[in-house]
Design a protein that fits this description.
The chain is α/β, with parallel strands linked by helices. Helices cover 25% and strands 19% of the residues. The strands form 4 sheets. It has a 6-stranded mixed beta sheet, with helices on both faces. It has a 3-stranded antiparallel beta sheet with strand order 4-5-6. Helix 3 runs parallel beside helix 7.
Length: 301
């Protein structure tokens, strides 16, 4: 269900859709990271697609809830976050937003990229680097019904993320097959946040990936958290009115992930959300690849 965030959610509906907003404070204890530097984020949610049959129910709510959870923290301002919802979240707008925010980062800053929406797969394209012969994609608003041309491929996302001028990066993906962007276990296929264009057979999608290093798994200083394993589709829940993974991530970020402490790390939020997500829906197994090697302060209470 939607949380009662108070006045902040009204602000979220109006302001963060404007790309390029930034806020820098002199006192890092207020709007900066506990590790020094500032915090910046791009948060994306797509429920309404250009192709109506692709539509989801709660991905835009996921993005707003994640945004509102961030700005509950003393180390975040609404102006630190660019939010793209539905028709705003085209392929070019997502890439431009990451690059634009990235251009304002310094080496000590932190960056979060969050995406909730469809994910899909397609045959491995150059560079041919997939053990299972399949590339993974996140699917923007302007996705096409019969082509990956407007999707964002894992091989495209990796250089965008690794090209940021900081190694303090968190990527959170609530989309199908998102575990395939990192080293991921094999698990049975799931349902819901998946577009099947008939380009790849269902049997091939079920093949294990061989456990090799994949895409964002190679990115130094990047923590990648995914709602699903390589061959799974995460669930949207009408009772929770969210994607299941995002629901529990947000719940943990609001305090329960570290009830006795003064801050929530990205790793704590994931450790809270992952088992609860699988308990809710046994067909999804959230994945985490931590290439940072130290706690990533996400929320200062």
């Amino acid at each position: 269900m939607r949380r009662n965030f108070g006045p902040a959610i009204i602000f979220a509906l109006v302001v963060p859709a404007v790309a390029g907003l930034s806020f820098t404070a002199c006192d890092n204890s207020v709007t900066g990271s506990s590790d020094g530097g500032a915090n910046r984020a791009v948060v994306v949610g797509v429920s309404a697609y250009r192709v109506p049959s692709f539509n989801l129910s709660f991905a835009d709510d996921d993005a707003l809830d994640y945004f509102n959870a961030l700005i509950q923290g003393a180390n975040w301002s609404p102006n630190d976050v660019t939010v793209l919802l539905n028709a705003q979240a085209t392929r070019s707008a997502i890439i431009d937003a990451i690059n634009s925010v990235g251009g304002s980062l310094s080496s000590g800053d932190k960056f979060v990229f969050y995406f909730s929406g469809h994910g899909t797969k397609g045959p491995d394209l150059d560079p041919l680097d997939e053990a299972d012969g399949l590339d993974e994609y996140i699917v923007p608003h302007d996705a096409l019904s019969n082509s990956h041309a407007n999707d964002i491929r894992d091989d495209e996302l990796e250089p965008i993320i690794t090209g940021l001028p900081t190694n303090n990066v968190l990527v959170v993906l609530d989309s199908s097959f998102s575990g395939g962007m990192i080293k991921s276990r094999f698990a049975p296929p799931g349902r819901v946040k998946f577009i099947d264009r008939g380009i790849v057979s269902a049997a091939r999608m079920r093949q294990p990936d061989g456990g090799g290093f994949k895409d964002l798994d190679r990115a130094a200083g990047v923590i990648t958290q995914t709602a699903s394993a390589t061959n799974e589709s995460p669930l949207e829940s009408s009772s929770l009115r969210n994607g299941v993974f995002t629901f529990y991530m947000v719940e943990g970020m609001l305090g329960p992930a570290n009830p006795g402490g003064d801050r929530i790390t990205a790793q704590e939020a994931f450790s809270y959300a992952a088992p609860r997500s699988t308990a809710f829906f046994s067909g999804m197994h959230p994945q985490q690849r931590d290439n940072r090697g130290s706690p990533y302060t996400l929320i200062i209470k």
